[in-house]
Amino acid sequence: MTINEDLNYMFTLTRQWLWIFGIWPDPDISLSDFRRPSIRFIIVTCTVSLYVSAPQMMNVIRAWGDVTRMVETFAAANYSLLAVCKLFVTWYHGKTLRLLMGSIMADWVTSTSNWERNTMLKIARRGRNLSLRCCVSATGLIIFSLSLYLMKFFKNIHQPHRSLAYRVESIQKSPTYEITYMIQMFGGAYTVLANYSVDSFVSILVLHVCAQLINLRTILNNLINKLANKSISSSRFKEGLAAIVVRHEHLIRNAKMIDGCYSTVLFVNVLLATFQMCSITFQIFTIITDNLKMPIVRIFFLSFYITCMLTHLYTYCYAAERLITESTNMAYGVYECKWYNLSAKDARDLMIIVYRSMIPLRLTAGKFGTFSLEMFGTTLKTSMGYLSALLTMRD
């Protein structure tokens, strides 16, 4: 496959959507051109910020004191604000992400062995599966949202007092009302797609580092076995080990670059995901306990919304868990090889890699927590604790 085919295979729809949003870190574009915000990026961020996030935050202020209304509007506002943050962070760190994309392209070019490419394709396939799950959940969320908004639009179009998708009291006249309503619908779709695209992009970047760590561990084991079998000299072994150490440092640096770009926004993501799952569950609980007359489509939408949030959070936790495992496996790979057949001097050189692998590589949430499957469970338990507090406040 060519480089473009490799990147398309890895990033699938993520590449197209990030390009549409004007934030795809293409290494072929000059840095000066990339640092200037594109028209597409400005249009998308302004649409989401002004027509989705701003009205929702105003509605939160208006609903102050009414716990049920505040929770309902705050949940939607969180999601749109998170989308704006992810878009801005991806654009702001464009220079660093371009270096990472260049490194990925170089990895596909320099991998000449079939087993190396097979490992990369295997991990890339898992990234595609995660991306596909996010895409399905995002598509379903968009369909549900547009269906509800269109039903609301046609129901209120001939009413004397018409409400927008995201309520703004002062807009009633035609065609300003219709245009604003459609822009808000597009803004809602952009919100979902922005969250999906960035989530998939980050998880695939992390999984690519995992694939390179697996390949590096295999190369190290093969090198040690060759020396143990007297197939190479000690000097050739030292040259190969030096190249492995340099490559290992390069992968560690790439993992830290990914974490440095997205650590802050992922901290916000965890907080907002916790509050959102709490607030949506609170809405469903309120509908059931208070016997509110709510369309069944609305209940399905809220349930699907929670599923979407969990799917996106799981992509981060799975990729980060895999990164922790593969980074520490470098040390275990040294233990499992035939180091006992080497001379004491050659075996001592392996301790450099062992010491460097004792601290696992992590994807952090603002340096306060580490993404893992354990964090996924902790987030669910925390959101249920907040739900209990909200129900106590309501009562």
Automatic annotation (TrEMBL):
InterPro entries given in the database record: 7tm6_olfct_rcpt
Chief localisation class: membrane
Alphabetically ordered keywords of this record: Cell membrane, Membrane, Olfaction, Receptor, Sensory transduction, Transducer, Transmembrane, Transmembrane helix
GO MF terms held by the record: odorant binding; olfactory receptor activity
Keyword set includes Membrane: yes
Compartment(s) of residence: Cell membrane
TM helices/strands, residue ranges: 38-54, 74-92, 130-151, 266-288, 300-320
Bilayer topology: Multi-pass membrane protein
Pfam families assigned to the protein according to its UniProt record, in alphabetical order: 7tm_6
Gene Ontology CC entries for this record: plasma membrane
Gene Ontology process terms (BP): signal transduction
PANTHER family the UniProt entry points to: ODORANT RECEPTOR (PTHR21137), ODORANT RECEPTOR 19A-RELATED (PTHR21137:SF35)
Record family assignment: Belongs to the insect chemoreceptor superfamily. Heteromeric odorant receptor channel (TC 1.A.69) family.
Protein name: Odorant receptor
Annotated source species: Temnothorax curvispinosus
